Amino acid sequence: MRRVLYVLLGVAIFAALWEGYKLVGSPDGTVLFGVRFLPRADDLSMPHLWTVLQRLGRPELTGGQPVWIVILHACAFTFGITAAGFVAGALVGLVLAVLMQQFRIVERGLLPYVILSQTVPLVALAPLISGWGGTIMPPWATVSVIAAYLAFFPVAVGMLRGLQSPTASGVELMRSYAAGWWRTLVKLRFPASLPYLFPALRLAGAAAVVGAVVGEISTGTRGGIGRLIIEYSREATSDPAKVYTAMLGAALLGLFVAGAVSLLEVPLMRHRRHVEVVTL
Amino acid sequence: MRKVRIFTAIAATSVLMLSGCGTADDSSTTTTPASGGALTPIKLQLQWFFQAQFAGYIAAVDQGFYKEQGLDVQLLEGGTDIVPQTVLATGKADYAVAWVPKALASREQGAGITDVGQIFGRSGTYQVAWKDSGITSAAQLKGKKVGNWGFGNEFELFAGMTKAGIDPGKDVTLVQQQFDMQALLKKEIDAAQAMSYNEYAQLLEAKNPATGKLYTADDFSVIDWKKEGSAMLQDAVWANESKLSDPAYQQQTVKFLTATIKGWAFCRDNAEKCRDMVVAKGSKLGKSHQLWQMNEVNKLIWPATGGIGVVSDADWKQTVDISMTTKNQTGDTVLKKAPEGLAYTNDYINQAITAAKAAGVDVNGASFAPTTVTLTEGGA
């Protein structure tokens, strides 16, 4: 109950800031030394929030469906892409983390590449991956690959830290029981890594959303919210509120995914003390 | 034992990584010559999302013109990071639609592609200014804030200014322009780049806050690079240069172009039907905007005195000359030297024109008359 109130309060503060800035901000923005450091407050750059909400109710195109339905459909589509990418990325991250924990040499050899992988710009990656669409996988799945590519990283790194977190005495105890690799992993390392895993999964969730939206934009995959953002932004000249409806959809999708990921924690963390950990 | 395990793990990871890399280079060619009644699958890479700019291809699919030729054509939409000529050169598409200067630049960097059909005979690039600014020609841009798109889309503007005696590096303030027209509407810039069939229409779909009505063509003045003599060739059909030595691909190219000609001729005569086809393809741009675009695109093709798709030597030379001599603000030219090898050929389009004529298609459109399209707010 209280949480709902806080959420509503957050929305209200955002709305107040937006409309308040529109009220006091200069329609031409504030320019200092030739650089605009406060945005324009006119209706073309910052439409009133109620204009955006009204736009949600009006048809997308004459005779078409209302914008909010189009946006919900697009969000559902992108959510599917995100979920597939998130699951694939998390699994890859888990496997890599286990391998790196188990074999020192893999950690030394692979970890730098895992980190390097995140410095490859999507601009370079997207055209490469989009070429797979239609031949070895459906086009939407190529976007999932991009989402997974961004999502596996926090899981791999966070999970590695988690698997390495048990104390030496714990590991030695397992060894004194003659517990093998698998048993040590399941009984000691996995439970110990949970507090590291969940923050990593949240990061992965956020990364998967970004990957899906950006992937849709750069490969032009149709059906999702990323594609809607770029299609609507072409109409920014004549229908500025429409752009914001798509952005609203993307924001909601992000919140929804974050919520879904944190729900994953509930069954696994119920019996655990909450432990503050720092990942990365 | 442990050593073996380590080794297998390393081997497994490296195989995984290698196979991951391998798939990227694996360019499976889909072209198999049609034998008997089976349709040959063809992929055509477009520059952008479905819109009337590509109506001819969409119509040729929709009306079955490609099927008549034994081709099963799949249209691939573009995206912000999809470069059609690269997709073509890497074998992920059989043909691609691309602007000539950009495709020539990719060609210089090693993309083996050939212009086999210059569908748009004219350039659709404008520089738009407010009428009350008094800017009506390139020379008057002097001292003004001039918007340009960059990324190789700006060279007609730079050539036009250079031709008018303006040094684009010194005499104007260059502003990187977004792909919408807000900067001009807010008077942040004095003149904005616009395509006749897209961004210019967006201006006329926007409401003037002062009057509460849409802006009209009277509010703006247009510098048309065709009239300033710095126009460059735009949308063309590109084919894979090395495959063109294969007689089967040659034949297929003629068939593809024949059906493409039919598609564009259909859209010339049935603009509204083609508009509906584009809308049915799921374009998010409104109906009046698409009809405007269809009409403007038709103007860029028709009338085609030499026949649709035939590369005019003079226009080609002008495009290449500007590409080699005009410098943008960073001092770069599109091309460093004249294109080598088979940059364009009229062999296939001429065969296609003969075939289309034999089928009763008007390939010149001498009697084509553009209509007047009324835009509605937001193009809806």
Automatic annotation (TrEMBL), chain B:
Residue span(s) of domain SsuA/THI5-like: 52-271
Keywords (A to Z) from UniProt: Iron, Metal-binding, Pyridoxal phosphate, Signal, Thiamine biosynthesis, Transferase
Source organism, top-level taxon: Bacteria
Biochemical pathway: Cofactor biosynthesis; thiamine diphosphate biosynthesis
Position of the signal peptide: 1-24
Catalytic activity, as annotated: N(6)-(pyridoxal phosphate)-L-lysyl-[4-amino-5-hydroxymethyl-2-methylpyrimidine phosphate synthase] + L-histidyl-[4-amino-5-hydroxymethyl-2-methylpyrimidine phosphate synthase] + 2 Fe(3+) + 4 H2O = L-lysyl-[4-amino-5-hydroxymethyl-2-methylpyrimidine phosphate synthase] + (2S)-2-amino-5-hydroxy-4-oxopentanoyl-[4-amino-5-hydroxymethyl-2-methylpyrimidine phosphate synthase] + 4-amino-2-methyl-5-(phosphooxymethyl)pyrimidine + 3-oxopropanoate + 2 Fe(2+) + 2 H(+)
Job of this protein: Responsible for the formation of the pyrimidine heterocycle in the thiamine biosynthesis pathway. Catalyzes the formation of hydroxymethylpyrimidine phosphate (HMP-P) from histidine and pyridoxal phosphate (PLP). The protein uses PLP and the active site histidine to form HMP-P, generating an inactive enzyme. The enzyme can only undergo a single turnover, which suggests it is a suicide enzyme.
Subunit structure: Homodimer.
Family: Belongs to the NMT1/THI5 family.
Protein name per Swiss-Prot or TrEMBL: Thiamine pyrimidine synthase
